Structure to design on (1636 residues):
């Protein structure tokens, strides 16, 4: 039985667990060391550290202080790893904590983080998804269930000081271009809620002042939210500091491409079973700038899709130049509108696109002025037939249930 | 044997074939009528109407007048189709013309259209791909071969006058925001090279003056360049004019997501075997704004991928806000750099990404400020192993061959 | 365009085409020579040489003289191929003759060949399947259509004299154990209907007297009827005679595992696009006794199956020892019975199992005394839902159409 | 968290656990009751109840008393289930016991059970496979690892008295046709080692005298050893007694089609997470004789196979009539011989075929006199390339390790 080198107690605040941190900084001390070739287990909190509850109110989604996220387990030192190496991580398995077989999905209030479709869903909403073995189903979104494509939303190695400075300068400068925007353009360092792991005293205060927020994906990987980086996959991470310092968290039971609901996928507390190895000097040998990975041999095999197209003309008629973000938003809005014909509320449809294994493809990015993006919705996840036909759509969903909403105060 | 209702002679100029057109306009007369439930065959030119030749010079790619594209076969009238209906099109099969078993891929000069990576590849280059049954291989790009995911890059129904006006106003206004840009923001109507099918005389002149260019994908579908809209798939198109007026062309033997090389995928002349049907009033019943489709049950099954990540920090360090276009460009540049370690020139690597069935996924679009996109490169298409390992990359490609380049004059 | 090195004229008797033969014998002269690395096209008759017609009567299936089959195109000489080499054959593509876009399926009378379920279907029956692009549908079997997994039922190299003698002795001795059995245990050489290609005169008579019948699969491959040896696959054949002598025919548009209807799959005339190469001394190097092959990267992706189990207790209660043949027959009978609940006649259900891409798995062969076999029926090929449910099966097929039957005379 | 309604303690003899039984008999009392729609967890012993150990000796495989198997957990009563209903079982998940992350594979001595290739491997041998997350690897079989396709080898409902009598009469009569055969034709009831669950006293003795052995698959399912009946699949079982009486065990981490090594797949102790439901009168409605099932949406996606053919001519030249058992044996022997060219011992190669997700297809069963079977070996499970090529096979396996063998005493 592999050793569990990081444990988390879901009844305890993550701030009290010194094997957890919520900022990126090279000075955060390793909490455990492993050898290349070893396999081991790590437990993690959900990304909010337990703030979001399994209930029927979205008030917690509305009220959360987003400066506290993400609670990561680590950093783990790998013996012999040096800057310039590639750290090879096998995600041997990932799962939910047995005492916590559920996850949440939600949309933040536009005033508190927003999300991909925040102009259409400006208020906080939340759905709860029960995990039944390899499958999930929600009491707030009837008529749909699917197999989990379980993955860590966030995983990567500690940056060195130089990389950290690059990040901070880049993002702080960017915020300065529109500092009052709601939601903001980016999140600067914020010491008040920083959890710097085993750093203490002055060293902690110093590091907390410049520790990079965990929200965006960056050169080291980090919060990539790639649904296919799932259990069974193999990842090659650039190493920046001696020992690598691998940290991870933000586990998802399932997510659609884009994580368009932002809060988030089906978010859960859980564990990862990992094996690590090293390719010496791999960064230069292979010309690696961002992590690369190989997919799992075991993934859900849904193959009957209904595919929605979107182009970079926005929902108000505005023309954008080869903008895939706008094009994918149109494809998502098209899919939501389609699903409402079967009785779903827009919020339920949005929750499905955020949680189910939908694919988002960059289909065309050169045909000026319009990008084309496609959203692939697996039809097999529905309890009824959603294909178009001569009879027209049947209202299979009665509308007496919806995703709980918490109005802004 | 199904009837071939539109024939093309590749030795003849497409301007001499009155069953072909290269602009979108509701007044273009139907060239043939079919009944719902019927299946039939249509032949098409390659998108340039034969301008690009099977040789080892990129001068034709450099010199092409892009105002002549795309040469489409149609429009086909479907009996009983009315505005508001959905036209259901089964792509029963698609193939190359037997006398023309090759295709081309290229990058335009930045002065003449450019492309996704035009800042990195500013000059015209061209590769030729031989079609051997279900597979292709290029004398300009050694060490790689793959099965074709054959599809029409461009297919859709005629717009009505109102929709046409929306397009023209939207795009002309957009061009006006930066009229001297190279490459341009969009392409306005251009009568000089318009081919309006069977329209003649004054009617032709009038329509040519406002006929929409065929370059961008739009509400009706059009030049979507979706690689998965392949033979065997089923598409639901909005109908705008009586009879629908279905036209198509721009056949691709294979393409990567994004068609990042712009000129283009593996471009070929060929034929389509189609069946059409109608869902009455389907646009309103299903809330359709853009076409939707279902994938083919027969597609290449490559599943061992090497996946490259990109984030919306550009190659010069610039920060962009959740910009998937920038993120995908980084993923592409990362993959190109990786492939050069095995001996490919950057141009060869770029050509592989434009032609092979690579997937481009919108992985994360909410984690401010960085979008995350992934490029999935199937490893099985290479004659050698491209996976990372302790031994480092082997230079399997000797570098004595490259993709022909034609310098700007 | 690859050269067509063997042509067939479907309006001509195959006996008049000297590039065709219907027996295996080392003395049959090569009809064409190709070089390793070359690709070329071969045309073939359907296995009966045109005897079975596209009509609504099964009399031809009842009356056929089975000693005439199979009409093979070849043998093709490969320069440099010697006994002990492996001949590598790439099936670049396979298709139907454009002037003959249909195929047939049938069950022989028990008196004339029978078939897997001849005790249940003792009379001749026939269904016609129309080929519509990549798909097929039958006017005799409503409610079902599927993509073709096109393949040659029969392909292999000429035996040498020693191997031929082994075959003849083995099978003649076997017939002698029960010479009056109906259907027979095997088919001995039969000169009267032999077509020995370009052999003539005495040489022909001598060879015809001992030429092996083409019915069974043997060491060289031959009539394996493996549905997955489809277009796009790569096969490694043992070579027995100088030049290899590759012959093939018996094209199938689609077939279920087992080819249980015997007459046969969806049988058609067509063409193959091939490329050949040689692995010198490959038989000994790799210890090859029978051909081996790699599957195509392009195949139908049906994945939602209803799976029927069968065990080696026969339909009359008899116990058999680990007999997979009996077990698979039970699985087939179970599937047929199930399909009748939706309105199909047993003959229609049998035809579906013979033609659609059903899988037959050897599931357990060690749990004495019962083997377990499974039949995988893809649910997606039906126009309606065949899954079990609380509502019970709906009679979607009205029963006014059946597979034509020709009573024994 | 679902309730675990049957627990097993691996340190305790299964004979001491009254929620376990090793015979089929209608009188075995239910050990727990569940409601339709409920999900719950069941733990199981490995099929030998812990007799086979994680060590490097095959003596336990040689010495085991096979009359003790299989130790099943159950029977479970389902409220409302009546004879003639279909019991719908969702295998929500299946896994190994966390304290026992390993499994065994072996071949029995020909004197004690034998196996599919017992004439070639007449002595007891054993390999141990470590479970690392979703993957497995063996210290006795280097160079190969694969993802688990976890499944219960044995699952089914209690027979009623009439069905039990049919079984006993059928098999006892069969044994009588050759009572001294080694291995035997079948296994008769055997009271001495019977574990009848909660039956006690005279009732136990009576039932033990006629309780059917658990070895063969039968009408109710039972020991089908179908690798694809894996976690995530849905099964429809005929119900024979009030409450159904569902029992299961014999968990496999992975198995090849046929379970040709007999002892067995990768055998392990573990748990199942199940949900049950009922289709009233489903047996008659759907004409069900044996269980039917639908595959899991999550399974290993290996798709690059090397496929070996076998025909029904045995390894000594003997001719058999359409015998799939013989044909599959030849395909297996061909694959074993091929793998030895890369350095594997025959026993290691045999162990790979018994444990890895190889497919066994019934390819042709009508071409008299030869059946054709194919064995599909996934190439991706090997650490090196096993495809044929001009360079010939490389001896990647050095031969200093083998599968432990215990000679007959």
């Amino acid at each position: 039985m592999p050793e569990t080198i990081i444990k988390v107690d879901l009844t305890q605040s993550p701030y009290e667990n010194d094997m957890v941190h919520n900022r990126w900084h090279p000075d955060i001390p390793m909490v455990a060391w492993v050898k290349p070739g070893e396999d081991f287990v790590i437990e993690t909190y959900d990304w909010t550290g337990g703030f979001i509850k399994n209930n029927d109110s979205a008030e917690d989604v509305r009220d959360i202080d987003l400066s506290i996220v993400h609670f990561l387990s680590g950093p783990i030192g790998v013996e012999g790893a040096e800057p310039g190496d590639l750290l090879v991580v096998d995600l041997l398995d990932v799962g939910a904590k047995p005492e916590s077989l559920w996850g949440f999905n939600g949309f933040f209030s536009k005033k508190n983080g927003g999300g991909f479709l925040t102009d259409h869903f400006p208020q906080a909403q939340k759905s709860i998804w029960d995990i039944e073995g390899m499958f999930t189903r929600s009491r707030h979104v009837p008529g749909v269930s699917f197999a989990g494509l379980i993955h860590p939303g966030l995983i990567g190695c500690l940056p060195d000081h130089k990389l950290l400075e690059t990040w901070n300068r880049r993002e702080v400068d960017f915020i300065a271009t529109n500092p009052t925007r709601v939601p903001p353009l980016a999140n600067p360092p914020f010491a008040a809620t920083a959890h710097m792991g085993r750093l203490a005293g002055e060293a902690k205060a110093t590091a907390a002042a410049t520790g990079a927020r965990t929200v965006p994906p960056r050169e080291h990987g980090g919060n990539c939210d790639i649904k296919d980086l799932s259990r069974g996959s193999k990842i090659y991470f650039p190493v920046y500091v001696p020992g690598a310092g691998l940290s991870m968290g933000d586990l998802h039971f399932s997510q659609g491409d884009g994580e368009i609901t932002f809060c988030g996928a089906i978010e859960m507390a859980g564990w990862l079973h990992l094996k690590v190895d090293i390719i010496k000097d791999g960064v230069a040998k292979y010309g690696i700038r961002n992590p690369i990975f190989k997919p799992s041999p075991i993934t859900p095999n849904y193959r009957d899709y209904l595919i929605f197209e979107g182009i970079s003309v926005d929902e108000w008629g505005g023309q954008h130049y080869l903008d895939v973000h706008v094009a994918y938003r149109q494809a998502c809005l098209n899919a939501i509108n389609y699903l409402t014909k079967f009785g779903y509320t827009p919020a339920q449809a949005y929750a499905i696109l955020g949680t189910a294994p939908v694919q988002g493809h960059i289909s065309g990015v050169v045909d000026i002025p319009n990008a084309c993006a496609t959203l692939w919705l697996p039809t097999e996840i529905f309890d009824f037939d959603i294909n178009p036909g001569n009879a027209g759509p049947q209202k299979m969903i009665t509308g007496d249930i919806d995703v709980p909403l918490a109005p802004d105060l």
